[in-house]
Automatic annotation (TrEMBL):
Residue intervals passing through the bilayer: none
Organism the protein comes from: [Candida] arabinofermentans NRRL YB-2248
Entry's Gene Ontology BP terms: methylation
Protein name: Methyltransferase type 11 domain-containing protein
Keyword Methyltransferase in annotation: yes
Alphabetized Gene3D superfamilies for the sequence: Vaccinia Virus protein VP39
Length: 325
């Protein structure tokens, strides 16, 4: 069971402190779906006429609704689904949700079995989204379910992930790496399978889509800031963040936040591995000297981060778009 489904996981801090997605990126996904994208691939001529319609949108692993709510105005009906009861409860208690609104519904379901979603029929969904969650799914089953439920020819899939928050400050980036991955006393060994399978999963799911006869026009776009800096310099990275595009015109998923040290620590508190760390160390009270978040905060302060300073943080990201044959 993913940590997000456990009672000890604080769903409301997930809602408050996780990053949201830029409207520019939602526009990109909708343009792709509508088949009305300026950044047309060379194979575009072959898909002319297959314009996606906007009847039904299905958001998998919806969490607290980071994609479900902003995309729902663009579709006649949006269904948000997640295996975690507490995530679904949080969505239903959101001010954006109205019980009698038939255009926005939530239900409990895993991406590997969509047949449990009330009233959902095969070949009926216009757009399936899955944000920051596909690494929890079983890739073949997920791809098989998406192919089954998307509308033939006009249905599309969009999934995306954000990976590490990057400061572009070597000292602060190193402290993040220490507490999150490198030092086994902290989160290093405590990542759920979902996270540790992350890279393998990305390769496997993209391979399945690219080799599948069920999908075409598969687009995979990565924003790897440290590689970009290494290859083209920090100015190229800063321009990419500012314009939301690489120098070759390729549109990026740019997720950024300006955070004080307090807010950064609150964001870190949403990491599933941190939840596991507290469970593993019942003897350590939150906020005491041995608490790893207190230690991390001390390191960040010693590296020069004063609480009133606001730091610009940009996440590495990846998105994948595909159309159903
Ligand atoms: C990091 S949250 C992402 C939530 C939201 N989509 C976002 O963009 O912030 C991951 C979500 O995936 C859900 N999840 C875990 N395993 C899943 C599965 N097999 N099928 C569907 N969702 C799953 C979790 O319950 C959790 O709500």
């Amino acid at each position: 069971m993913a940590t997000y489904s456990k009672k000890s996981y604080n769903v409301s801090s997930y809602k408050d402190f996780r990053p949201t997605y830029p409207s520019k990126f939602f526009e990109k996904v909708l343009r792709y779906h509508d088949n009305d994208d300026d950044a047309k691939p060379s194979s575009y001529a072959s898909i002319e006429g297959f314009n996606g319609t906007r009847e039904l949108h299905l958001d998998l692993g919806c969490g607290t609704g980071q994609v479900t709510f902003p995309l729902s105005p663009f579709f006649k009906t949006t269904l948000g689904t997640d295996p975690s009861q507490s995530m679904i409860d949080q969505c239903k208690s959101s001010p954006e949700y109205k019980v009698d609104d038939d255009g926005l519904r939530f239900s409990i379901a895993s991406a590997e079995d969509l047949s449990v979603i009330p009233g959902l029929k095969p070949s009926s969904v216009d757009l399936i989204t899955a944000a920051e969650c596909v690494h929890w799914f079983d890739p073949p089953k997920f791809v098989e379910q998406v192919a089954k439920y998307l509308k033939p020819q006009t249905g599309s899939l969009a999934y995306w992930l954000y990976v590490e928050p990057i400061f572009c400050d070597p000292k602060l980036d190193a402290i993040y790496q220490k507490y999150v991955y490198q030092d086994d006393r902290y989160m290093g060994l405590l990542w759920d399978e979902g996270k540790s399978e992350f890279r393998k999963w990305l390769k496997q799911s993209v391979d399945i889509l690219e080799n599948s006869k069920e999908f075409y026009d598969v687009q995979v776009v990565k924003f790897d800031q440290l590689s970009l800096i290494e290859n083209e310099g920090v100015e190229s990275r800063d321009l990419a963040v500012k314009n939301g595009k690489l120098s070759n015109g390729c549109e990026l998923l740019v997720i950024e936040k300006h955070l004080s040290l307090d807010d950064y620590i609150l964001y870190m508190s949403t990491y599933s591995a941190l939840n596991k760390w507290y469970t593993k160390h019942p003897e350590i009270s939150k906020g005491r000297n041995e608490d790893m978040m207190v230690l991390m905060r001390k390191d960040l302060e010693e590296a020069g981060w004063k609480n009133n300073d606001v730091k610009h943080i940009v996440w590495d990201s990846l998105y994948v778009l595909a159309r159903k044959v």
